Every structure is written in structure tokens, then in C-alpha cells.
Amino acid sequence: MSESVRVMLPEEKVNQRIAELGEEISKEFAGEPVHLICILKGSVFFTCELAKRITVPVTMDFMTVSSYGSGTTSSGNVKIKKDLDEDIAGKNVVVIEDIIDTGRTLACLLEILKERNPKKLKLCTLLDKPDRRIADVSVDYTGFVIPDEFVVGYGLDYDQRYRNLPYVGVLDLG
Ligand SMILES: O=P(O)(O)OC[C@H]1O[C@H](OP(=O)(O)OP(=O)(O)O)[C@H](O)[C@@H]1O
Ligand code: HPA
């Protein structure tokens, strides 16, 4: 078995797009602070790059969730493995994801976060794979819409590997 990775989105293209997203978010929240919620582990690389490109005051928190459950419900189910350290009530929250695939993780997570009464609750994803969507998720900021291929790099893993690739690539298992 010889695994290989074909580049889909080169590093420069990803970084350029992240800079644009940072500008967009900064404009939308002009003058107001934003609280970024990084969904571990995949979103770490994207969150750090994006945070550097936001010009309004930024605070950050981290959350680990795992999705589980059968496909019979539209939102699936989500288990919080590590919760946020801080309360989000009254804050301008932007949830940062590396990828929205079936949408089950985020559909459920956004419902949980909404109940905590943030002032605003937005969703930002580096990658969106709409062909596989099962649960309806409204995405506010999207880096790239990609076809239905298994991608790695820029935080995304296959069996915990490849997260550190500086680009997004398609994994070929050989
Ligand atoms: O739209 P969905 O089909 O629900 O898939 C998207 C979710 O899957 C990945 O996380 P994963 O559970 O693999 O954890 P990781 O970030 O630690 O790799 C990704 O980071 C999203 O959270
Ligand atoms: O394409 C993917 N790659 C890695 N992790 C993922 N989680 C959902 N979709 C993907």
C-alpha cells in the first residue's frame, strides 16, 4: 500500500483566501471584539492563521466534540469532550471549522451554542463539501467549496496523520 497526497489547494492560495476571510470578518464586526471558537483538533491551523488576519480585538477559546449517532436525525448528535473555558453570553462568537462535510457535527453544535445566548453566532469554515450534506447548516464565511474527495492537510487528518501539511491535498490510498 503506497499512500500519496495530490495537492488540491496550494499553501499560497489557502493563505490568500484566509487573509480575505480575515478582512471580511473584520469589516463585518468593525469596532467590536470577536470571540473565536476553535473546534479541535482540525481547526487549529486555520484558526491561528485567521486570527492573525483579523484587525478587531480577538479572544479565543477551544472545544473538542465528537459526532455520533445514526443518520436518521437531521442534526445527528454531538458529544462535548472538552467544553469552552469561558461563557459566551453576550459575545460576538465565530465558530471556526476546518471542514463541513455531512454537516451533522456543526448543525448540532450550533444548537448547543445558541442556547448559551451569544450576541451573534457565526460559522466560518475553511472547506465546504456540500455534496455530502445531510444536515442543514448555514455557513457565514467559507474558504473554499470542494468536491467530494477525502482531503488532508492544513489541520485535516487521516488516522491522525497529515495535519501538518501546509496545503490541502487529496489522499490516495494507493
Ligand atoms: O460535517 P461532518 O460530517 O460532521 O464532519 C466535519 C467534522 O469532522 C471533522 O472532525 P473530526 O471529528 O474528524 O475531528 P478532528 O478535527 O479532531 O480531526 C471536522 O473537523 C469537523 O468537525
Ligand atoms: O475530507 C475529510 N478529511 C478529513 N477529515 C474529514 N472529516 C470530514 N471530512 C473529512
Largest sheet: 6 strands, mixed
CATH level 1 name: Alpha Beta
Query: Span between N and C termini?
Result: 6 Å
Corresponding CATH architecture: 3-Layer(aba) Sandwich
Order of helices and strands: EHEHEEEHEEEE
Low-pLDDT stretches are 70-75
Provide a count of the helices. Answer: 3
Please provide a written account of the structure:
The chain is an alpha/beta fold and 174 residues long. The chain has helices spanning 11-28, 44-52, 104-114; strands spanning 4-9, 34-40, 58-68, 77-82, 92-100, 120-128, 141-145, 151-152, 168-172. It has a single domain (11-148), classed as Rossmann fold (3-Layer(aba) Sandwich). The protein has a six-stranded mixed beta sheet with strand order 4-3-2-5-6-7. The protein is globular, with a radius of gyration of 16 Å.
Characteristic key phrases:
single chain, 174 residues, alpha/beta, Rossmann fold, 6-stranded mixed β-sheet, 3-stranded antiparallel β-sheet, 3 helices, 22% helix, globular, binds 1-O-pyrophosphono-5-O-phosphono-alpha-D-ribofuranose, binds hypoxanthine
